[in-house]
Specification:
The protein has 163 residues and is α+β, with helices and mostly antiparallel strands. It is built from 3 helices and 4 strands, in the order αββαββα. The chain has helices spanning 2-17, 59-75, 112-162; strands spanning 33-36, 43-56, 81-91, 98-110.
Length: 163
């Protein structure tokens, strides 16, 4: 009886180990741009080594899952890029499944768009500061004129009282 059960369970367990395992892309992972080494921006700082794996019958589906896994991991390090450095595809044993492995780095990169946005923010901050300084100078001038007018008015009252 146990032998029959073992003959049924062992193949089922072995087959269960080689099933499809496609990683879904998480919301934070959607923010990560996946690139090859040659396509990454120039101004980048590596923050972590990462890897992604996935298994599916179709190699394209398995690759997509591995890319999702890589992007999800990069998001855990507050990176904005995942750079693929190593890529391997192989058959999963004697099954019809393909396994894809991607290795690389999670990177914090400064893109052209980010640089433009930073420069724009700096220009806006400088303009606000100049406007505030101009308003402050205008207010100081108005206060000075008001003080002079009050002093002149006091002086005229004093002259009228003396007469």
């Amino acid at each position: 009886m146990f032998q029959r059960l073992a003959l049924v369970l062992i193949p089922a367990l072995v087959a269960g180990c080689v099933l499809s395992n496609v990683v879904a892309l998480e919301p934070e992972g959607k923010k990560i741009k996946l690139v090859r080494e040659a396509d990454k921006p120039i101004d980048c700082e590596p923050v972590a080594s990462i890897s992604g794996t996935s298994r599916a019958e179709e190699e394209k589906e398995a690759r997509k899952g591995a890319e999702n896994d890589l992007r999800n991991q990069a998001s855990e390090y507050d990176a904005n890029y995942a750079v693929v450095e190593t890529e391997r595809t192989r058959k999963a044993g004697t099954s019809p499944y393909q396994e894809v492995f991607l290795g690389g780095k999670a990177m914090k990169c400064v893109t052209f768009e980010m640089e433009v946005a930073r420069e724009q923010a700096e220009a806006e901050a400088k303009l606000r500061q100049e406007q505030e300084e101009a308003e402050r100078a205008r207010q100081e001038e108005l206060d000075r004129i008001k003080r002079e007018a009050e002093a002149e008015s006091d002086s005229e009252q004093t002259d009228d009282e003396e007469d």
